[in-house]
Amino acid sequence: MWPTSLAWTCRFSSVIRCERSVDCAAVAEEGELALDYRENRLTDQKGAVHPIKRHYVQTVVGSPIGSEVKIELETNDVIWLSPADGAGVFSDNWIGVLLSPKAGVIVQELRPLVCRPVK
User: Fold this and answer.
1) Angstrom distance (rounded) from CA 4 to CA 53
2) For residue 52, how many other CB atoms are within 10 A of its CB?
3) Mean per-residue pLDDT over the chain, rounded
4) Angle at alpha carbon of residue 62, lines to 58 and 67, rounded to 5°
């Protein structure tokens, strides 16, 4: 991911919200996130800036997923991404999710992400 670009735009078109005593439900909600590795931060869909606590890439031998990136934010939100095209021949998009643990009626949110490098 980092050899391609240090700045990425990630879009989502739905959110899955899980409530404390109710099933999880998907709702249509669009938004965009900006990942800036150079400044070590993520800007969310509301414009709030969140520092990246740590990020790393991991590869598991024998896994059908070539490699994956994990990004942990200071808010305890976690982003998991893997390349859409592991060889990088046809696409430099990365796909994954933003997981957001909550304290309250909503206990977890999940946003499916499609991330593209800013060129």
Assistant:
1) 21
2) 17
3) 90
4) 25
The 10s digit of each residue's pLDDT in 68-79 is: 899 999 999 999
The two tokens of residue 19 are 């409530």
Residues, the chain, total?
Answer: 119
Does position 36 have pLDDT exceeding 90, yes or no? yes
Asked if residue 52 lies in contact with residue 73, where contact means CB atoms within 8 angstroms, the answer is yes
> What percent of the chain shows pLDDT beyond 70?
99
- Residue spans of beta strands (DSSP E) within 6-105: 7-19, 24-36, 41-43, 49-58, 68-73, 78-83, 94-101
d(CA 88, CA 108): 32
State residue 41 phi and psi, 5-degree precision: -150, 160
Residues with Cβ within 8 Å of residue 108, at least 6 apart in sequence: 17, 18, 24, 99, 100, 101, 102
